[in-house]
Amino acid sequence: MSKDLTDLQLLTALEPVVEQNINRHMRMRKDWNPHDYVPWSEGKNFYALGGQDWDPEQSQLSEVARVAMIVNLLTEDNLPSYHREIAMNFSMDGPWGFWVNRWTTEENRHGIALRDYLVVTRAVDPVELEQLRIEQMTRGFSPGQNAQMGDEVFAGSLFDSVIYVTFQELATRVSHRNTGKACNDTVADQLLQRVSADENLHMIFYRDVSEAGFDLAPNQAMKALHKVLRNFKMPGYTIPDFRRRAVVIASGGIYDPRIHLEDIVAPVLKKWRIFEREDFTGEAARMRDDIGVLVEELQETVEKFEVAKQRRIERQAQVAEKKAAKNLLVSTSAAR
């Protein structure tokens, strides 16, 4: 039985792959400026500077779009915690260190642009947004917070981090893109297309480095993959009242169980050929089989969610129908 490689050995062995992927990323990335996607002409002072404070009627976003925007922004706000996580697990030396700083630089503009857009357009309550930002960042984030496997605490490692971030970046890309469409606003859609494009390139980097990791140490990478998927949580789960917000987002088609399975989990597993590879042995082979079980469980979750969603739509339609009938009756009576 071969002994697992240390993170230092993995970092050294994967360094050429990281350098290749950085070079590709720098060729493919497109620079953009947050200020170009903020409708500054719509801005006006708040009360402290003699203007008017926020009022709910000023927001032009639907509830789904507003909640999704807030969750997306608060997720981006925790960048210091994400930087710390990958800096600790990737190191700050050589190509790894260059990527940590480059990734952080590109991610930082997402929060800047989203906050400026939301505040200038008065799409959300800026006071509540600031309170949530403070709470969210104070709580921090780690992929393994509160997650355990039996008696084994989810401990961070190179493979844990790079595999987790592969799924997380893809999920964030999809969430931002769908939110842009839900906003029903050309500027917001253009902004979130830019953010999504960044997230996609970041995902490709982590996905391909992870793939090289599977070739280098398949059993070790599989153990990390199993741990990540069995305990997967989006980085926004530390946001106050996250469960309720997640329900609104799922019901609105921004990010739901079907999207998680079909657009996030399945494509990455296919790219890594998880169910085709024959180099997993022992415990790792059993974990690969359990991931197959997990996929089936996720499919069951999708089916249950779709049934519940349809029932909710039918209930809402009935309520709307009764309300319309009542209003018609009132109008008829008044006419008499």
Automatic annotation (TrEMBL):
SUPFAM superfamilies found in the cross-reference section: Ferritin-like (SSF47240)
KW Lipid metabolism (keyword) present: yes
Keyword Iron attached: yes
Keywords linked to the UniProt accession: Fatty acid biosynthesis, Fatty acid metabolism, Iron, Lipid biosynthesis, Lipid metabolism, Metal-binding, Oxidoreductase
Cofactors that this protein relies on: Fe(2+)
Cross-referenced InterPro entries: Fatty_acid_desaturase-2, Ferritin-like_SF, RNR-like
Quaternary data: Homodimer.
Family: Belongs to the fatty acid desaturase type 2 family.
Name assigned to this protein: Acyl-ACP desaturase
